[in-house]
Amino acid sequence: MKIIDMHCDTISKLCECKGTCLRKNDFCVDIEKLKKGNYAAQFFAMFIYLKNGKDPLETCLHMIDRCYVELDKNRNDIQIAKNYDDMVENQSEEKISAFLTIEEGAAIKGKVENLRNFYRLGVRLMTLTWNFPNEIGYPNCKEEFMNKGLTDFGKEVVFEMNRLGMIIDTSHLSDGGFYDVAKLSKKSFVASHSNARAVTDHSRNLTDDMIKILSEKGGVMGINFEKNFLGNDGMSRVEHMVKHIKHIKNVGGIDVIALGTDFDGISPELEIKDAGEMDKLIFALQRTGFSEDDIEKK
Question: Total domain count for the chain?
């Protein structure tokens, strides 16, 4: 059974830690672990932290360059993918597909031409906000932001991402921003690494209404392995993941469920410690009564 993970922060780790590489490292994601976990594709986020004083555009370009350097070194095992056909071709050559994403819309610095240039560099998904307000909209980390929607520029970004064919990611986005995307986007959008708020009451998770809308729009939400988004006992547990998955299936159907681990960007208290241990979740879903077809869709 092949795995597709819509979100990890491994490239950030590689850029932060000198002497590390994508082939084999002590992080949650490397090529050896992806192969062990039987991955078809990994979405690699270029995560931008706005409060470190660095230029977000320059930082993002540096991370993309590092990503390409690592992919080139390991071209026999992993290859960039820009669409579904690329992924199918990579699979035929027994290669893992790497999709490039941006986690923080401030990377485009309020200019759609930067968005277009990132698309030309191979970026196929952008998370509109992280935990700080930006030119596009507001995050869901503070109550004061939750009902605020997209800015005028944010609405322009939605239209341009639709035109380009770049996936709009609403994880981290305020509730008001989510509903603006749902109203404005002519194409399916995603919440690449978010869980169910009805199961774990955290603002980073989606309400049942959001899950229904996402499903109706043909989008998906990736189950996030962060302990605080899964439960309240200080540990990221498989049983918590299954609980969220069952709830989301009941609310929005099986097709809305995807995987967005957030590996290398979350707390270390993990029952599934890395990409090589995804069989733990598969076995748990099988024991709970999920069919092979259901698990394959997820």
Answer: 1
**Residues 230-277 pLDDT 10s:** 999 999 999 999 999 999 999 999 999 999 999 999 999 999 999 999
Q: Which is higher by pLDDT, 123 or 298?
A: 123
Q: Both tokens of residue 102?
A: 């941006």
Phi, psi of 265 (to 5 degrees): -140, 10
- Is the pLDDT score of 191 beyond 70? yes
Find the domain containing 88 and state its range.
3-297
3-state secondary structure string across the chain = CCEEEEEECHHHHHHHCCCCCCCCCCCCCCHHHHHHCCEEEEEEEEECCHHHCCCHHHHHHHHHHHHHHHHHHCCCCEEECCCHHHHHHHHHCCCEEEEEEEECHHHHCCCHHHHHHHHHCCEEEEECCCCCCCCCCCECCCHHHCCCCCCHHHHHHHHHHHHHCCEEECCCECHHHHHHHHHHCCCCCEECCCCECCCCCCCCCECHHHHHHHHHCCCEEEECCCHHHHCCCCCECHHHHHHHHHHHHHHHCHHHEEECCCECCCCCCECCCCHHHCHHHHHHHHHCCCCHHHHHHC
Who's near 132: CB < 8 A, 6+ residues apart? 50, 51, 106, 139
**Domain with 51 in it: what CATH number?**
3.20.20.140
Contact 272, 236 (CB under 8 A): yes
Q: Which residue has the tokens 């990503």?
A: 67
d(CA 41, CA 192): 14
